[in-house]
């Protein structure tokens, strides 16, 4: 499935092929909340990095999240791409998994399929004010789930 995406000011547009288009995972970590998810979480999906095409690339900026571990502050290798004109978060690319790119569902303009169940992850980092919906169909994780994005789609017959 081909996905088209853009930032809010439209200076950056992109397209990417995906086999895993379901936006089923809500991440409540502080990076997602502060950089993209005003309501408490962000949703990334996954595409094939070698199919990524970008228009307006000169408007992109990259944020390497800073993560505190005890006294040290580490620089996350993940490259969080955003439009430096309007601030829209667009995708994450991580050199540890170079074959994938992780667009934010919010940046995608192509209608995405709606998941029947949602996974809420990294709940250890959600502040108290964030309302996490409690649904029988959903699954809840304090940290990362073991299941990969590909496995999630394949097990449900949704890998395209
Ligand atoms: Zn923009
Ligand atoms: Zn996160």
State the main characteristics.
160 residues, mainly beta, Metal Binding Protein, Guanine Nucleotide Exchange Factor, Chain A, four-stranded mixed beta sheet, 2 helices, 14 strands, 32% strand, globular, binds zinc ion
Secondary-structure blueprint:
Elements (H helix, E strand, L loop, with lengths): L1 E5 L6 E5 L7 E3 L2 H6 L6 E2 L3 E2 L4 E3 L4 E4 L2 E4 L2 E4 L3 E5 L5 E5 L6 E4 L15 E3 L17 E2 L8 H7 L5
Parallel strand pairs: 3-13, 13-14
Antiparallel strand pairs: 1-2, 2-6, 3-4, 5-12, 7-10, 8-9, 10-11, 11-12
One zinc ion (ZN) binds next to loops.
Overall description:
With 160 residues, the protein is mainly beta. β8 and β9 form a beta hairpin. It has a five-stranded antiparallel beta sheet with strand order 5-12-11-10-7, with no helix packed on it. A four-stranded mixed beta sheet has the order 4-3-13-14, with no helix packed on it. The chain has a three-stranded antiparallel beta sheet with strand order 1-2-6, with no helix packed on it. It has helices at 30-35, 149-155; strands spanning 2-6, 13-17, 25-27, 42-43, 47-48, 53-55, 60-63, 66-69, 72-75, 79-83, 89-93, 100-103, 119-121, 139-140. The site of one zinc ion has 9 residues, from loops.
* Secondary structure: helix percent: under 10%
Strand count: 14
The total domain count is: 1
Share in β-strands? 25-35%
Strand order of the largest sheet: 5-12-11-10-7
Order of helices and strands: EEEHEEEEEEEEEEEH
**Shape field:** globular
- Arithmetic mean of pLDDT: 95
Return the CATH class.
Answer: Mainly Beta
* Biggest β-sheet description: 5 strands, antiparallel
Proper CATH architecture: Beta Complex
Bound molecule types? zinc ion
Radius of gyration: 16 Å
Based on helices, strands and strand pairing, what is the structural class? Answer: mainly beta
Termini separation comes to 7 Å
Number of helices: 2
Unreliably modeled segments: none
Find the CATH topology: Metal Binding Protein, Guanine Nucleotide Exchange Factor, Chain A
